[in-house]
Amino acid sequence: VLRTLSTSDDVEDRETEKGRLEEAYEKCDRDLDELIVQHYTELTTAIRTYQSITERITNSRNKIKQVKENLLSCKMLLHCKRDELRKLWIEGIEHKHVLNLLDEIENIKQVPQKLEQCMASKHYLNATDMLVSAVDSLEGPLLQVEGLSDLRLELHSKKMNMHLVLIDELHRHLYIKSTNRVGQRNKEKGRISSLVKDASPVPLMDVTNLSTPRKFLETSQFSTPGSSSMRETSLLEIKEDTELDPEENSTVFMGILIKGLAKLKKIPETVKAIQDRLEQELKQIVKRSTTQVADNGYQRGENLSQENQPR
Fold first, then answer.
1. What SS3 class is residue 240?
2. What are the residue boundaries of the structural domains of the chain, listed by start?
3. What CA–CA distance (Å, rounded) separates 125 from 131?
4. Which of 39, 114, 179, 267 is the most buried (most CB within 10 A)?
């Protein structure tokens, strides 16, 4: 309107243009009023719909704002809960570790009694495993427990002296147990010969088939590589049966003793002790064998003299 009026040259043109614009404005108003009358219902519905949409959008914005605030507060609470849960989790691990240590302490307190029982029943492998694991625990995770200092010293001293008992048992089976079998067979043959009234001399005893530790060593030493590996595997797989007599099988018992000495890391001391006592033990074997032969010969002489057959 301003541009149209400003381009006019004089007042009359302006008035003419103004009148024309006013007529056009009035016509537009009339047309608008007619359109409003014609579309009143649709217009009212559109306005109400627009108002409801505006209200819904406003409510949605307020709800979204409230949801954001709630999410932020939840996030803060979750951070607090996460720290609390992490603290509880760490405390749970600590309590579990403490319970395991207490159980281990209770088991270790029973080790001396169980150790005496195993030593009395000569189950040396179980005793060695029990003693080594107990000492490792006392000198490892339980090192800072002051209440176990006396028990630690006691078990450590027993571990230091354990190999002496095993070495004595090994010598007993190497030199005494193995030769006793020969003496027992000699006595049995002597008793049988004494019951026979024949004056023929007692036949010589065949000892070539006796299972002695020396022959066991030779068979494992000069066998083929495959069989020696099987021998080593069988030694590694030796297990102690607590329900059977440990000394029933002398060879297995000596394997158990050697395995126990290996767990105690006393194999060099064992080899040195065997070397040091070898001559003494062999002399004892000769002495015992001489005594047995002399006693057996004297008993046979007594039996023959009683039968009036002094031979």
1. coil
2. 1-106, 122-180+246-293
3. 10
4. 179
